[in-house]
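sry for the spam today, last one i promise. struct tokens for design, 189 residues
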């Protein structure tokens, strides 16, 4: 029997470690009454899906888990979908997580989210430090797509800005070509 156990359970069990947080915060519910809480609700769902991948291996499991934390106004919205839960059509709302999230945002999200983010970006100013990398956390809250590309560009702009500033400080100011010479000015009638 001992030899059989050794043969069945190899010593070199090289399974990849799984990410599992034993004391993960309980999922927040979403009632549909405060649009600013929707993004946090979706993020907490995604953390749960990532942490317990073995339980949420399909979009339908993920969407159904999410619906279990939807209450009040949002609960009334999802209720008709739950009545036909056995629908196996891949484009059905509860079988397609991306469609589920898109519908949640279109029904309960901020209708002016893009304009609001644009205004916040327009009003974003560099802090006293004068280094753009310190503004990246502010950008993270405003930009949702291609964040890494945006951070790379801003770091490049920041570097260029400081190089130019240093160059300007090391050179003496030169006179403008228009100073002291009327020949370059347009004739006056």
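last one done:
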């Amino acid at each position: 029997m001992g030899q059989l156990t050794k043969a069945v359970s190899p010593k070199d069990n090289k399974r990849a470690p799984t990410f599992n947080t034993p004391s993960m915060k309980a999922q927040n519910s979403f009632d549909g009454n405060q649009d600013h809480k929707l993004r946090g609700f979706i993020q907490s769902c995604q953390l749960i899906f990532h942490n317990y991948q073995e339980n949420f291996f399909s979009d339908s499991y993920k969407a159904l888990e999410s619906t279990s934390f939807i209450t009040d106004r949002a609960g009334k919205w999802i209720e008709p979908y739950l009545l036909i839960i056995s629908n196996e059509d891949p484009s059905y709302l509860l079988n397609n997580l991306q469609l589920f999230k898109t519908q949640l945002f279109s029904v309960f999200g901020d209708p002016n989210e893009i304009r609001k983010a644009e205004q916040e970006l327009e009003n974003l100013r560099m802090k006293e430090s004068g280094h753009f990398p310190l503004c990246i956390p502010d950008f993270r809250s405003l930009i949702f797509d291609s964040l890494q590309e945006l951070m790379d560009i801003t770091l490049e702009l920041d570097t260029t800005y400081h190089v130019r500033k240093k160059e300007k400080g090391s050179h003496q100011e030169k006179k403008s070509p228009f100073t002291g010479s009327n020949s370059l000015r347009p004739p006056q009638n």
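The CA atoms of residues 22 and 28 lie 17 Å apart. ok im logging off now
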